[in-house]
Specification:
The protein has about 525 residues and is of the alpha+beta class. The protein is built from 17 helices and 17 strands.
């Protein structure tokens, strides 16, 4: 599967994101009575797709718009309490008709979901029907932009398109179990969460839990998140993270280890950081349950006049997170981070960068001094920062974290992307220009960068002269993510011209030139 270029792999895997609502996201034996696209997608995640009449019972049955004869065939092929996934495009009756049809065919524990947006090839949400809390949460996200009038207009258009296109725009997805003599229960991960609800300090076990499947993110390595609601409340209480591909599994495990380490160091929860509830694995797929963080994305609040106060708040949060660790000697950082990072960078980018600039960068980063270790989130863009209803900051996505990382790197990364946000710099050229402006203290973004860095270094007692190696090292580290994305896009080793277009490579070059002039 990983031999496929990202443009083919991503939509194929997202076609079966519903599998994370199953008891096991990697079914071993599947009977599929669906069209070519869905069958191909199922085959990419199943151990085996079998034909009708093979004799052996299966773990999962899949179908599109099945009639009563097909449903009977699926039911008879399914092992006791096995899972059933079906897609429907009813013109009349909606999900209630789907539920009734499946129950009449002998299936139990039926739950219907509506992918949203309905007209999107790759939906962002799988909304459980008859779950007002989960539905209200999606409405509150405001991902459409604009206010209620615009959302109403878009909804009307969606419904009109559904009437015109019929099947495609009115898809209802149903999860169910095969018949069994055992007592029925919930099909989705809410079942095993319910068992431990009280011991996690989440309050009384809710009478009813619902699961909202969130499948955003631009790439196949983007994780899947299941948000758990105590209906009818629109506030998620638990977030369960899972990797869509094997390459992302290490990140989920890494986040679990990082959150556990942070909690152990602080003797409990850390302000603005999710609290880990449980780490669970099913068939080699790690599932990480943690307390859900809620709030408005900081990137939606950043504006020129608000850049300074919000950035100061981020700076203070990072300084508080750093604690008061004793500085480690320069040789530690050179051996642990500088030399390995330089080696990887030269191996990949050595053929596409100016050799003189590379030598300059090597000299700068090898001059790193003694610095205290700090928790480093390593993806602290404004999209991963939330402003809670109480006005405090909360930080998502710790899958790239280094518990004993370098100071200032998270702040420098945040300041770069906050500048992009304020400058509305969306493409590579615009972002390089925005970054260049932020290196000029006479500009708005440059002044904010200067003040925040001085504030952070002062709080940690770090000599400002130690900053230059960190500024260059930041983009050496992050350039590796561009390599991974380029390799995924190419379906193999990335070509030189694609590497040369790396955003982080361009930011690295800007920083090296600027430091060299100082």
């Amino acid at each position: 599967m990983r031999d496929l270029p990202e443009r083919e792999l991503n939509p194929r895997l997202r076609r079966v994101d519903w599998r994370f609502l199953l008891p096991a996201p990697r079914p071993q034996r599947v009977l599929c009575r669906a069209g070519a696209a869905l069958t191909e997608a199922v085959a990419s995640i199943a151990g085996e797709v079998v034909a009708v009449g093979s004799g052996e019972k299966v773990d999962l049955v899949v179908a599109e718009d099945p009639d009563s004869f097909t449903l009977a065939e699926l039911r008879d092929a399914l092992r006791p309490r096995g899972a059933c996934y079906t897609e429907w495009h009813p013109l009349l009756g909606g999900h209630r008709r789907v539920e009734r049809t499946l129950r009449d065919a002998g299936f139990v524990d039926v739950t219907c979901y509506r992918p949203w947006p309905g007209s999107a090839v790759l939906p962002t949400y799988w909304i459980p029907l008859n779950a007002p809390g989960a539905a209200a949460y999606v409405r509150s996200r405001g991902w459409l932009g604009g206010g209620r009038v615009r959302r109403l207009v878009v909804e009307v258009r969606q419904r009109a398109r559904g009437l015109i296109q019929g099947r495609r725009a009115t898809r209802i997805c149903a999860m169910a179990r095969g018949p069994s003599d055992t007592v029925s229960g919930e099909l989705d991960p809410a079942a095993w969460l319910r068992e431990h609800w009280r011991e996690w300090g989440l309050g009384p076990t809710p009478e009813r839990l619902s699961t909202l499947l969130v499948t955003g993110g631009p790439r196949s390595v983007s994780k899947v998140v299941l948000l758990i609601f105590a209906e009818p409340s629109p506030i998620p209480l638990v977030a369960v993270k899972a990797p869509r591909v094997n390459e992302a599994a290490a990140g989920v495990r890494r986040e679990g280890a990082a959150l556990a380490s942070l909690a152990a160091r602080s003797g409990g929860s850390v302000s603005g950081v999710p609290r880990i509830l449980v780490r669970h694995e099913i068939d080699g797929v790690p599932l990480l349950a943690e307390t859900a963080l809620v709030g408005r994305p900081l990137e939606s609040l950043l504006a020129p006049r608000r850049l300074s106060p919000w950035s100061t708040k981020v700076t203070d949060w990072l300084a508080a997170l750093a604690g008061g660790a004793v500085a480690l000697p320069a040789v530690h950082w050179r051996d642990a981070i500088v030399e390995p990072t330089l080696s990887r960078f030269v191996e990949v980018f050595g053929g596409v960068v100016d050799r003189g600039l590379l030598r300059e960068a090597e000299t700068i980063v090898r001059a790193i001094g003694a610095l205290p270790p700090v928790p480093e989130q390593r993806d602290l863009g404004p999209w991963n920062l939330l402003v809670t209803p109480a006005g405090e900051l909360a930080v998502l996505d710790w899958e790239s974290a280094e518990v004993d990382g370098l100071p200032t790197l998270d702040l420098l990364y945040y300041l770069a992307y906050a500048s992009f946000n304020v400058d509305r710099a969306h493409d590579r050229e615009a972002r390089v220009a925005s970054y260049r402006r932020s290196l000029d203290f006479s500009t708005l973004t440059g002044a904010v960068r200067r003040d925040c860095l001085a504030r952070y270094l002062g709080a940690l007692g770090i000599d400002p002269a130690r900053l230059a190696p960190l500024r260059v090292l930041l983009w050496l580290i992050h350039a590796q993510s561009d390599v991974r994305h380029a390799a995924a896009d190419a379906g193999g080793p990335p070509p030189a011209d694609l590497l040369a277009r790396s955003l982080f490579l361009a930011l690295w070059a800007e920083e090296v030139r600027h430091v060299a002039r100082e």
